Amino acid sequence: METMTQPKIVGYRQLSEEEVALMNEGKALAEMCGAYVAKLRGYTPDNGDGPIIAPGGSLDQRWIDIGATDLQRGFMAVIRGIAKPTTF
Questions:
Q1: By residue range, what is the domain housing residue 35?
Q2: Within its chain, how far is the Cα of 1 from the centroid?
Q3: Would the pLDDT of 46 be above 80?
Q4: Residues 47, 50: Cα–Cα separation, whole Å
Q5: Within a domain: residue 47?
C-alpha cells in the first residue's frame, strides 16, 4: 500500500491511496445527498403538469433541515473516522 505525500496538517496523518479513495467516495455520496436535500427544499406537489420545484416548497422544511444537518454530521463523522485525526 503506497502512501500519498501531502502537506502536513497539524493533527492529521498521511493517508494511503486507498484511504483517499474512501474519502473521495464519501464526499461524492455527500454531494448526492446534498442535491437530494436541495430538491426536497424546493418541492411542491404535482399540479397536473408534473411536480413543480419552487423555493419554500410544500414539505415540512423543519424536518428537511434536521435531516440535512444530521446527514452533514454523519458524513463528517465517517470522514473523520477515515482520517483519524489526533486533535480535538
A1: 26-83
A2: 27
A3: no
A4: 6
A5: yes
d(CA 20, CA 14): 10
Residue for cell digits 452533514? 72
**Predicted TM-score (pTM) of this structure:** 0.76
For residue 58, the model assigns a pLDDT of 77
- Three-state DSSP at 25 gives helix
Burial of 71 (0-12, 13-18, 19+ CB in 10 A): middle
Radius of gyration of the chain (CA): 18
Number of domains present in the structure of the chain: 1
Provide the grid cell at 13.
496523518
H/E run at residue 81:
helix 61-83
